[in-house]
Structures are given as C-alpha cells and as structure tokens.
Amino acid sequence: MTGTLGDLLRRAADTASVPQLDLDGLLGEADKRQRRRRLAIAAVAAGAVAATAAGSVLVTRADPKTQQPPPAAPPSSTQSSNVAVAPHGARPLVYADGSTVHVGDATVEAHDPVAFIDATDDGAVYEAAYDGTLWFTDGKTSSVIGTTAFTAAPTAHSGVVTTGDSGSLVVWGDASIGENESPVEFVVYDTSRREEVARIPFTEPGEVDQVLYVDEGQVYVNPDPSTPGCWAIDVQDLHPCKHPHLFRFDVASGRTTKITLADLDAHLGTRARRFAVPAGGDLDLGARPGFSQVGQRLVHTDTDGDPTVLSTASGDEVRLRLPRGYRAPGGEGSGGMIAVSQWLDDDHVVLWADDGGGDLPAKEGDLLVCRLPDGTCRVAVPRSSRPYVVP
C-alpha cells in the first residue's frame, strides 16, 4: 500500500474499528504483552522511570522563549596535535569535550559547550548550548543545518535527531515552522551532500509522530499513537492489536508505504550493524547494549543487571575482553555504565565507560574501540579532567 502519508492515514481511519476495553481480559493481555515482541520506546512508554532504570534519557521540547538566532560565524577548525583516534572504515569516532568537537583526528571549536552530539558517515551533528540549533561538521568546516523541536535538556540529550548506524541521513522535527514553533513535519538532511533532501509531514499539525529507525535511504515513522489504526506505538499498548503497522518513507522516490512491524523486524535482521533481540524480548530500536566488567571480560547485562547472551544480527555471540590491567572508571554503586556508543564499521563498535557522575550528559570516562570478530578492546580516548559528551 503506497501513497501520500495523509491518504494512507485516511484509509486506515476508514477501516479501523473502535477499540474496546475488555476488563476481564486485561490482565491476561498484559501478561501476553510481556512475551510479545514489540517496539519498546522508553521516552513514550515509560517516561522518567525507564530513563533512570534503563539508561535512556528524557526529551524536552524547546521553549520558544529561549530560542535564539544561530551564531553569525561558524566555529574554527584545527587538526589535533595529540591524535587519540583515527577513523575506522565508514565512520569516524566522534565525541565532544567542552566546546571542542572531535571528528576522527580532527577538531572543531563550537561557540558554546556541546550539549548533544551524534554521528554520520561524514562527521558529527551537534547542538551547542540548549537553543535547538543544529550544526554539522566534517572536522574541517561547520555550518548550521536547522532547528530541532526537541532540544537537548540539561539532564538528557536523546531525541534531538535520529541517525542510522550507517549512512548520511539525519532526521529531526522542524521547529522553524508551525504554530508556537511546534513541529509539523520532519526534515531529512543528507550530510554527504550537505543539503536537505526531503520533508515528511506529520499526521496532523500538533500531533506526536515519531521516527523509529533510519537507514541509508529510508525513514521509518510511527504516526501519532492516537491515530485510528494499529500502530507499532499505540495508545492501546496494554490491549495490543495483532498486527502493528508503521510507515516507510523512501527518500529517493518520495514514496510512503504502509508496512507491518514484522516487515521492519525482518529488515533489521539483514542489517550488519545491529545486535540480535533475544527470543521473546522487546524490539528496542534505541537500545545500546550495556556491560559489566568481570575480571578482564565484559559481560552483557539486561536492564535488571542480570547477565545475558548478546549476539550480532548474524548470530555470532559477542565476547569482549578488556586490555590487561584496565579498570572501568565507575565502581560498584557509582552509577557508572559501560555501553555501546556508536558503530564505526561492520566489525568495530565504540564503548563508553563512564563514571556515572551525575545527571548531565557530559561525564568523565574512557572511549574504547572493540573489534567484534575477536573481541579485543583498546582504549581509544582515555579519560581526562574534562568530561565528554558522546553519541
């Protein structure tokens, strides 16, 4: 089923039945829900409790009163005199300390301390201060690319933009148009071309549409959960429908197609830079696997802190080991975490080992690069007296 997003939604509304709440079956359905493989989006389904328990973070909408025009001059760029990281394959390692943005072995100076950063194959998307202004840098030059409706907050920086684990697409809710600067459409920006390549209208102005996943050429969108129909994220989540749907937007053709959640799940199974979801587990598109240090091994743990087996999408078990004598900065009870920060290529991931120091995104810690085929990890960026912000 293809067409414009509005036409597809109208067809869905015409055929949708009115949800009925079966009180007698509610507990049974809730139990089934625990076993059903579904989308688990922390910011929607669990709020602040899940943000604390699972290492996810909250998203706040930019306050129009605090929005300021972007700086007139771009930041300066220099080559690092102490090269700690070299790009690996398709994507450079990116992070920020203070106002310094690191892209591989190059650095760029932002106009304010960096509050948010994310990676594409071509460089880094970042927000300095908390005004919603988005910048892109390839490590040589920087430029403003737009204004996001979901700005980085002092204690969180998730949801500002959505990128894929490979490719050049960046997607965000546009705050530059719409009443009271509420987003009415998504911007799709290509960092390899340094230009906007598409816009995806929201279900209706003022609705809460969400980007679920981005790859090299498609954007996967869930309409507002209250939209009539059966959706991946739905207001009837405690009494779920049998065949959840979402929309796939193809950037090259501009065509929107209604697909099932099972279609997306199958597509994810073909992606090299994905970890497998355990049988019966939740399909959390924003999940960043976490680990605990046991001797010199890294043991994958679930959100309850229990050890579990982690595999790549190809089925290979992930077995990681740390350099001899290495100790992660966060001791027991510190709140410190060791979690995947980004993919560099199909074989290498970056782990962020932080000290758990407070609620701010910037924390002290080490960035490690781990090679999945043999499990070896090395410290790529050692901790310093300045905290880091990572993807």
TrEMBL record:
**Keywords recorded for this protein, A-Z:** Membrane, Transmembrane, Transmembrane helix
List residues traversing the bilayer.
39-59
Q: Which InterPro entries match?
A: Quino_amine_DH_bsu (IPR011044)
Domain of life of the source? Bacteria
Q: What are the start and end residues of every segment in region (Disordered)?
A: 63-84
Q: What is this protein called?
A: Uncharacterized protein
